[in-house]
């Protein structure tokens, strides 16, 4: 009280700079950016590049977090005063100060459109990140879909649509001829999305396309992205730039949308029973074709295995939890599948950084009072926004103001569980996640019901009162099922009490908002809040890097590892040695002092200590009953899983009551935006890194210090291993010089036809590889990059372990992998000997 929130933190000015991972050039730079000293370089870069408004280099350009927080918080507060949300000026001032404090201390953040637009003069005050559109079976409606979608992208948001009302390519047009079908019209919408940058920024436009499983064009829909992905692989192998931002990648169709198949319980049961499934004409309702449900399910799973699309949305489950079913059914979702509500509606999102509400290393108490207060402040801010924001169409504006859908959620769940010493894939981890999620949504609905007592319920409440209260009771009943032996009693009691209050106040006052919560991916705002993990996700890896869509890369190092180790009782010196091992090896496996029972605590989505993919869907099943909408969550599967594994995971997701599931098999796409760090630049105890690059590997990263590479020369007297080979008509020898510990440190090649161009090139190639190995490039990285290269000579070999190779380079590095890489790494790379 009496202290301005900006005076409660220490501020500093620093330069924001992001370098391009291809060539080290500066992709973005702004000097003298003012942020709290506690903010990382990564968060500073995100703020400056993504959320500062005004022309770069001009006096109108924002340069301080204070300006951004003032712009957003002051605008929301002024709207709240105008609409009567506060009893007096003192309450309004307190709300304003608390909102700014939560923003600058990285405790919570709005979705990107709020930062893009709110308080910026001369632009529509669009605040929603999520839109659901609709389309009818007319050319006018289809063309209007293109226009509405483009308008949404321009404002910095994304949209989803269900195309099942568009007649199939098997049906006739009124004037004669055959219809194009929805998949054909998707091409035009995809091209539009690829052209328009989100909010005029460097974010890629986001969109979702959905088709019901009984639509006659469902098979074309299932395969449309997988076929394009095959084209991308061919072009990549031919030397075209297939990076996510590469100019050649733009020629690949359907890549700007997430595709999902909408399935019912009837279809899923038909899959289980091995029954037939009818595809129904849109125009007449007649059966166009009868297929086997299992065959259709297998096609969905096979396409997903190939390219991560389509996802699946479970229609019966979605509409069972619908709070406005009397008005209309839920047909669509936003691009990430977390917002599911009426057609032609919007949802503004915000997320809370969970790790800020956990006690210090010696105290695992969750700050229930602080957390619920943050829920109240941010939920109120979102409620003020929904009534004052601009919308791209009158239809969306009317539905959104009538039903006032909000999407409060969280980030850093994975980091919080790790800090608690709980494995993500454990009963304890799932119980904690369920309790925190129940507290968030329960308190949000209780806040909504209190607001309804002052401002009135949402306009569509009267028609939907029965459904609204029924769903609230379903949430409350689910909270009673959380295992009280696995969660602190204070947290669980608060969660259950919040639902009792929501049901009681909702029955008396109605509720102000037809939806309260979603779990969004929080990709960009998660970085803004310095989160180790995004949304509901576990960490991708203890050390990793992310390619920014606008160019450049950013290193994201898990800051929770030492905290978790201290929580588990390790001594300071042990913690330091384990962390140093992780820094050097990019893995916690094999680190000194670590007890075997603690290894699962540090399991991640990818890497050599990965969470089993069933653990991902089980976590979703644990929190879904406490979310108004759905969960944006990628279920990461290792590269070696089968199509059958994918199919079983789809079935399990349905059985767990999840509303939607998206699966990503590692390396299934040519352009992969988030990848594991291969090798970090290391310099003493440097905390972070700002500019610099490994000269050999493709991946570069931002570092604070430039690290001088060091060469580990081979001993003068060393062991070597020579193998002879024949590939097609080419015969040769490869000699590998080894370090004392058996690692390869040099290779020499001698191929037939000495003096030929091929022999000379291979000599130079061997020298460059030898230098790379001695400067620290792991053999694993070479094998991953250079196998599967295609050029002559190619074909059969005389090697009993490797019978076929696509090129000389492919054979040599497969041979090196078999000789020098452990089996687990070779399995990850898909390189196994014939024996």
TrEMBL record:
GO terms for biological process: DNA biosynthetic process. The keyword Iron does not apply. Keywords: Cobalamin, Cobalt, Disulfide bond, DNA synthesis, Nucleotide-binding, Oxidoreductase. Its EC number is 1.17.4.1. Residues 718-818 form the TSCPD domain. It is an enzyme of class 1 (oxidoreductase). It catalyses: a 2'-deoxyribonucleoside 5'-diphosphate + [thioredoxin]-disulfide + H2O = a ribonucleoside 5'-diphosphate + [thioredoxin]-dithiol. It comes from the Bacteria. Residues 18-106 form the Ribonucleotide reductase class II vitamin B12-dependent N-terminal domain. Belongs to the ribonucleoside diphosphate reductase class-2 family. This is Vitamin B12-dependent ribonucleotide reductase. It comes from uncultured Nocardioidaceae bacterium.
């Amino acid at each position: 009280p009496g202290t301005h929130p900006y005076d409660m933190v220490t501020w500093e000015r620093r330069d924001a700079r992001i370098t391009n991972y291809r060539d080290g050039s500066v992709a973005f730079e702004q000097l003298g950016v003012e942020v709290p000293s506690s903010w990382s370089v990564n968060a500073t870069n995100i703020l400056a590049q993504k959320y500062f408004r005004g022309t770069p280099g001009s006096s109108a350009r924002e340069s301080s977090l204070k300006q951004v927080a003032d712009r957003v918080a002051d605008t929301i507060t002024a709207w709240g005063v105008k609409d009567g949300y506060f009893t007096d000026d003192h309450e309004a001032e307190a709300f304003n100060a608390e909102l700014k404090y939560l923003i600058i201390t990285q405790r919570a953040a709005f979705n990107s459109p709020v930062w893009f637009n709110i308080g910026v003069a001369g632009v529509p005050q669009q605040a929603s990140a999520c839109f659901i559109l609709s389309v009818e079976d007319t050319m006018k409606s289809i063309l209007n879909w293109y226009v509405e979608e483009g308008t949404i992208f321009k404002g910095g948001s994304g949209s989803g649509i269900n195309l099942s009302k568009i007649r199939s390519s098997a049906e006739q047009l009124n004037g004669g001829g055959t219809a194009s079908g929805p998949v054909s019209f998707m091409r035009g919408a995809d091209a539009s999305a690829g052209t328009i940058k989100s909010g005029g920024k460097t974010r890629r436009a986001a969109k979702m396309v959905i088709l019901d499983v009984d639509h006659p064009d469902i098979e074309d829909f299932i395969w449309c992205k997988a076929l394009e992905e095959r084209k991308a692989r061919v072009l990549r192998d031919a030397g075209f730039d297939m990076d996510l931002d590469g100019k050649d990648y733009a020629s690949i169709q359907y890549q700007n949308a997430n595709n999902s198949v909408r399935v019912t319980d009837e279809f899923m049961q038909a899959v289980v029973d091995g029954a037939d499934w009818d595809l129904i004409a849109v125009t007449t309702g007649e059966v166009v074709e009868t297929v086997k449900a299992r065959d259709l399910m297998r096609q969905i799973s096979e396409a997903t295995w190939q390219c991560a699309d389509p996802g699946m949305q479970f229609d019966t489950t979605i509409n069972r939890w619908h709070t406005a079913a009397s008005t209309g059914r839920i047909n669509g979702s936003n691009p990430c599948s977390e917002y599911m509500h009426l057609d032609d509606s919007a949802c503004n999102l915000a997320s809370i950084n969970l790790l800020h509400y956990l006690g210090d290393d010696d105290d695992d108490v969750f700050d229930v009072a602080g957390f619920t207060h943050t829920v109240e402040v941010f939920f109120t801010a979102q409620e003020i926004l929904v009534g004052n924001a601009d919308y791209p169409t009158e239809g969306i504006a009317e539905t959104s103001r009538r039903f006032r859908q909000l999407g409060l959620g969280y980030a850093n769940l994975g980091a919080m569980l790790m800090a608690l010493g709980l494995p993500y894939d454990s009963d304890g981890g799932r119980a904690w996640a369920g309790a925190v999620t129940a507290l968030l949504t329960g308190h949000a609905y209780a806040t909504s019901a209190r607001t309804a007592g002052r401002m009135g319920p949402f306009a569509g409440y009267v028609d939907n009162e029965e459904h609204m209260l029924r769903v609230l009771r379903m949430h409350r009943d689910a909270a009673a099922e959380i295992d009280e032996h696995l969660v602190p009693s204070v947290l669980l009691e608060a969660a259950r009490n919040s639902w009792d209050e929501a049901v009681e106040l909702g029955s008396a006052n109605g509720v102000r908002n037809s939806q309260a919560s979603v779990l969004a991916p929080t990709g960009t705002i998660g970085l803004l809040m310095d989160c180790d993990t995004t949304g509901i996700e576990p960490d991708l890896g203890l050390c990793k890097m992310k390619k920014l869509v606008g160019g450049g890369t950013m290193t994201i190092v898990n800051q929770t590892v030492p905290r978790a180790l201290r929580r588990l009782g390790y001594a300071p010196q042990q913690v330091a040695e384990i962390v140093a091992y992780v820094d050097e090896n990019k893995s916690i496996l094999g680190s000194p002092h670590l007890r075997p029972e603690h290894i699962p605590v540090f399991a991640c989505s990818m890497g050599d200590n990965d969470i089993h993919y069933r653990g991902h869907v089980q976590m979703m099943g644990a929190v879904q009953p406490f979310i108004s909408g759905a969960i944006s969550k990628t279920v990461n599967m290792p590269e070696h899983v089968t199509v059958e594994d994918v199919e079983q995971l789809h079935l399990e997701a349905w059985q767990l009551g999840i509303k939607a599931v998206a699966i990503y098999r590692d390396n299934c796409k040519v352009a992969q935006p988030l990848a594991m760090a291969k090798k970090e630049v290391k310099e003493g105890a440097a905390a972070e890194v700002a500019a610099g690059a490994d000269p050999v590997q493709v991946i570069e990263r931002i570092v604070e210090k430039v690290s001088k590479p060091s060469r580990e020369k081979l001993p003068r007297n060393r062991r070597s291993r020579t193998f002879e080979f024949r590939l097609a008509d080419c015969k040769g020898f490869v000699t590998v010089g080894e370090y004392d510990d058996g690692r390869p440190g040099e290779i020499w090649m001698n191929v037939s036809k000495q003096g030929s161009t091929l022999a000379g090139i291979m000599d130079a190639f061997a020298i460059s590889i030898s230098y790379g190995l001695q400067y620290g490039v792991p053999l694993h990285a070479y094998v991953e990059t250079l196998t599967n290269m295609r050029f002559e000579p190619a074909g059969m070999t005389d090697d009993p372990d490797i019978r076929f190779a696509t090129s000389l380079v492919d054979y040599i590095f497969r041979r090196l992998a078999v000789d020098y890489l452990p089996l687990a790494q070779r399995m990850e790379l898909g390189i196994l000997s014939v024996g």
